[in-house]
Amino acid sequence: MATPENEVVDTAEARPRGRRGLVQQEIFDQATSLFAQRGYAGTSLQDIADAVGLTRPALYHYFRNKEELLAKLVAEVTVEAATDISKIARRKALSAEEKVREIVRHTVRSNGLHAERFRLLIRSEADLPEGVREAYEANRKSVLHSLSRVIEQGIDAGVFRAQMPQVAALGILGITNWVAWWYHPGSSFDLDAVSEELADFAVHGLAAELGRPTSAGPVGILRSMRREIDRLENLLQGED
């Protein structure tokens, strides 16, 4: 059955609690690390059991197979993002600008704090089992739909220039997702400061420019984004 664009799809059960939950979390953490090192296809359940210090039969008391571990990863990375962004997009008390800022700040912080898991999921896209892939794609579409709708609201309100909302949303998500590759703990950049800078970047790129005709279509969007990327690149060069 088709999944609506803005529907969040969960692929894992509720988070377990108590000692069992602690063991499951340790297994998940070790599996994530091994998936990152060897790839999903190159990691066996025996590898995971060895890393945790369990026998393979004991491991089955906590997870049925690798697919279940991958489904949990998809849930933590994409379900939470889709749910949180959908909530921000529905907040009536926020303007379109404020919603974009909140979405960008949230996404940047999440990608910076959980960079390894995010990178792993992107690299594993081709290996995702069918059921997990469907949930992954549905939640990515939900995020895109939420942000596109917010941008459309800003255009209707006259605070954002005329443009293709989905193209602009893809551009913003591409920039925020890239944080998982270049931000790292110990960086001279504070993650909160990075999230604020990129929130400004996104809003400035979308905003209607006073005294200048608005430009619709991807060419206008790309020109505006190039100006903002040049500004951000100058900022990042200060870390070199």
UniProtKB/TrEMBL annotation:
Species for this entry: Nocardioides panzhihuensis
Protein name as catalogued: AcrR family transcriptional regulator
DNA-binding region coordinates: 44-63
InterPro entries for the chain: DNA-bd_HTH_TetR-type_CS, Homeodomain-like_sf, HTH-type_TetR-like_transc_reg, HTH_TetR, KstR2_TetR_C, Tet_transcr_reg_TetR-rel_C_sf
TM region(s), chain numbering: none
Residues annotated as domain HTH tetR-type: 21-81
GO molecular function terms listed in the Swiss-Prot or TrEMBL record: DNA-binding transcription factor activity; transcription cis-regulatory region binding
Sorted UniProt keywords: DNA-binding, Repressor, Transcription, Transcription regulation
Taxonomy of the source species: Bacteria, Bacillati, Actinomycetota, Actinomycetes, Propionibacteriales
